[in-house]
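Technical appendix A lists one of the benchmark inputs used to test multi-chain prediction within the project. The record comprises four sequence entries:
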Amino acid sequence: MFLEYFNYWIVVFLMMAGFYIVIAHDNLIKKIVGLNIFQASVFVLYISFGKITGGTAPIIAEGFSVYSNPLPHVLILTAIVVGVATTALGLALVVRINEAYGTIEDDEIHKADEEED
Amino acid sequence: MTSSTAIAFAIGVPLLGTLLILLHKRYPNIREAITLGTAATLFLIVLSILPEVLAGERPNLTFIEFLPGISIAFEVEPLGMLFAMIASGLWIVTTFYSIGYMRGHHEKNQTRFYACFAIAISSTMGICFAGNMLTLFIFYEVLTLSTYPLVAHHQSPEAKAAGRVYLGILIGTSIGFLLLAILWTWHLTGTLDFEEGGILSGKADGPLAGILLFLYMYGIGKAALMPIHRWLPAAMVAPTPVSALLHAVAVVKAGVFSVVKVIVYIFGTDFLSSIHHDDWLMYVAAFTLVAASCVALTKDNLKARLAYSTISQLSYVILGAALATSAGVLGSGMHIAMHAFGKITLFFCAGAIMVASHKTEISQMDGLGRRMPFTFIAFAIGAMCVIGLPPMGGSWSKWYLMVGSADAGHFIFIIVLIISSLLNVAYLLPIVGRGFFRPAPPETNDGNHQDHSHAGIKEAPAFCLFAMAISSAGCIALFFFADRIIKLLEPVAKAAG
Amino acid sequence: MVAHFPALLVIIPLIGAPICMLVRVRDWSWAVATICTWASFAISWLLLQQVISDGSISYQMGGWAPPIGIEYRIDMANAFVMLIVTGIGSVIMPYARESVRAEYGVRRVYFFYTSYLLCFCGLLGVAATGDAFNLFVFLEINSLATYVLVGMGKDRRALTAAYQYLVLGTIGATFIVIGIGLLYAETGTLNMYDLADRIEKVGASRTIGAAFAFLVVGISLKLALFPLHLWLPNAYTYAPSMVSAFLAATATKVAVYVLLRFLFSVFNIELTFDVLPLDYIFAALAVIAMFAASTVAIFQENLKRMLAYSSVAQIGYIVLGISLHNAAGVTASVLHLFNHAIIKGGMFLALGCIVYRLGTVNIHHLQGIGRRMPLTTAALVTGGLGLIGVPLTAGFVSKWYLVIAAIEKGWWPLGLLVLLSSLLAVVYVWRIVEVAYMKPVPENAEQVEEAPSSLLFPTFILIGASIYFGIDTDLPLDAAIETAKQLTGNGE
Amino acid sequence: MRSYLVLRVVSKLLMPFILLFALYVQFHGDFGPGGGFQAGVIFASAFILYALIFGVKDAGAVLPRGILRFGIAMGVLLYAGVGVFNLLVGGNFLDYNVMAKDPTLGQHLGIWLVELGVGLTVASVMVTIFFTFAGHRYRPQ
């Protein structure tokens, strides 16, 4: 049971770990790290779907008849690009937040906002 | 001008007036002349519809179809005709009065006052002529919204608090209950048109009809059935012309008018008396009638007393309609007219006293009648009309209400009506007595204390006196020409019988 | 060319975005954005006509037939949503020029319009596509551009708002990808119509159930369904006015469309509502949203924030209609989607006018604003009446249908709750009225003029529309009824 | 890092190979594994390596911001332009069959151009992201 589905266990572990980091950490950079781990779990999930036992790379060649499904790879390539863009934007925002508040800790930012009100 | 276009004009003319008033906000004389002109035009337009209605026709006008199956539609029937004539006719009188009052009182924001007043009248016309329940509801809401600035006119904290109560109760009940009732009716019957004999009969069974009746009666907050009457005393912070025309005539009468319309044309009197779920309404109305009169007795502030008196009188109308007999409905319709004239006269007097002497409490009015004889005579006439003493119009409507109670076999309500009339006597006539027969308080020269004496008080401004004269003449005239009203309302009463 | 409209609708803003970046001259980039928006509007209008007369349109990207290729399928539902998006965009663009200049400045303003066009393109792509994964990609294009736009606000809190939005939005998007992935794993297809067929055959397997849960949660995050709305108030409050208006009117609406599409077209009604108790969950959340968010709105001092919370409440109405899952309920939802877009868009534009002149929308600084900026305030209050659902405004029509739907379903207490919750709207709208009209102008207040006509005109178009569509209900009502018919008939 | 001679020399030596490999991945994309995304990132990594060793300023001299921004925009335009061209000559959006007389040739041409656009944009974006972060100076408010 465990070994048979070990890739999915990895997915679940990564997903929960990433999600936990996003929720539990106050540091904005760490949140983004968590977000990345969270997204990475999905990449693994998709790649797992595409794998066919004994299949090769999906390029037509003599002597092979079983290929892995290429579609999840293509999809996840797109998802990775989206992930990169999200990370870049998130980090850029963190840089700006650091300039505006002088901190990247969530609770300190909250405090600064409350003082302003 | 055909009658259908007359309906459109009746609603459009006051709106046009509003626009002109806003445009001339820098020229008070022109602004008020426009108001007068608009009021007179409106009255003539309304009168032009009268012959057709008397001839038994039902002029109608349909605007765009608003939702599938529901249009904004108008249809003139006798009750609406009567109400429209009262409201538009008294608007002219009130305008004269307003000019005297607002100038004499040096009110601010007069342009907003006149503009909102005109919108309120326009929506009252819409209510009068509404051809289906949704149209009525729409104008009902417009009326609430347009009178809010009038109630909160002074912009003082009390005025704003009163405005909140006013808006809260009226909008709350109308959206929470009335709209739900309308939607439910639409769901049950697929129509919202006012039809003789009602649309709900056969579509709603016993308890459901009872619930619907409850939703309608408490949804129409403007009818001030207890315990949702609080807005009316609150609205008394408004300038007196507003209290006079809107909170003795247009707004509250729009409420009871809607109640009568709902009972006669949505439920149908036959259906209502057959289901026996309307008994509670009669008892609530009877209770409101007596209780409000008792509260009125305790009030020293003149306008507050009149407000509670109004609450009590509104329940006469509701009671009459709830009796669901021919005479009861007739009495209801007549009482709308009779009370309108009587109460507006009383409010005119209250305002005149306020302008001339800055007195608002009844206990301060000892001997004031000798300084302001015309005002107090008018007050006496109005009071007698509200009480129902001949030769004032009010006596007819109370007569028919009692006949209606007897027809329905509810003799207890005859007793209630009599008790209430006695209470009316008890809270209205002593004011006149005080004015004429009690000695005026002595003059004090102590600068620190408020001067309670009547030194320097003169009769109210001429504009006010003129208005009072007309409305009190109306009270008397209604007694002698009551047959005209009966004739107008006959078709409705017959259908109810 | 007519046959290519579904693709062109998405491509035009996509091409506009890089051009915007290349021209770089301030007014030119604005002009490019405006022209693209207007062109899209014209196309979406024609598309809607085409759908009305000929039924659904299918467009095969790259000539590859579905289910292998990506298909764009335009039916009533998305044609209508695209019309809303492009229509709102077309009205807002003329407004944007002055407003953005005042709130964002002129330096590198071409970035602003590039982001706007990408956001616009993403929304249209989400609406147009018939491919589940393609939908995710466009959703992310739209979201990323939106984060940028929100972060362009003047206040530094715009940055934290954008960050918060980014984190939550990304979580939502990832949930959606997981859901789509699971669907793919179970059925082996990504085309929505193909998916619908295969899901029907598979039935409610555990994978489908999990996919469904991930999708619903992910989409609910994007549409700010209570209690997943946390990103919304800050984002709307601190974004530039033009962005607030555009987002409030379109972004959540498109998310609602996605929800409708998945619930009704991809998963079928039996699965969604009979096997899974989604109707009760949605109804409960919607009612809480209506009351909780409206109550919070009452206590806000920043008017933009107040409107933002009101948006959360209004989304509650929309979701409530969906939870009834009968034709009338969905009609009410779609209708409210349209009406709320117009009303809220118009109100945010009106607030933008105030920001333009006063630099603040804090209620304490707006005393007597009714006298200082009469037209703007009139627009704001008229919009507010629409939010309450006063008759003769668009808001009334949708509430009418919502309550009727609730009664038809037999859940009449919900109808009563809808009406009662609109009383809360009365309270927060009346706060504006009291401050605007019933308070004197502060003595030390500087002299302000009415907002310039380039701002007022678009504001009045939207507010006017909210009145117009409250009286002449044909267009939105027909479209909503057709959409509901299509969706509740399981996409046929 | 100006003092690390080994790094400087090795990176200079590596640069052409990285770029060449990027081009291989780019243009072999329509036959085998590869394509614009991968190629773009590899291409960008060469410049990022250069910037790491020689500083962002020097790297910026090789690839000014203006060119990068142009690259980003042109890549997208190229992609969309191919699609619109197909539209104009009678196919659907991105239907490469109509690009040349022979559909197979058309497919080759179409995918080649589209991947070129993708590669251009990806490379420019990656380099821009790196330059933006690395070249940013902390400006507290």
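Chain B is about 75% helix and 5% strand. The first strand of chain B starts at residue 60 and ends at 67. Comparable benchmark entries are summarised in Table A2.
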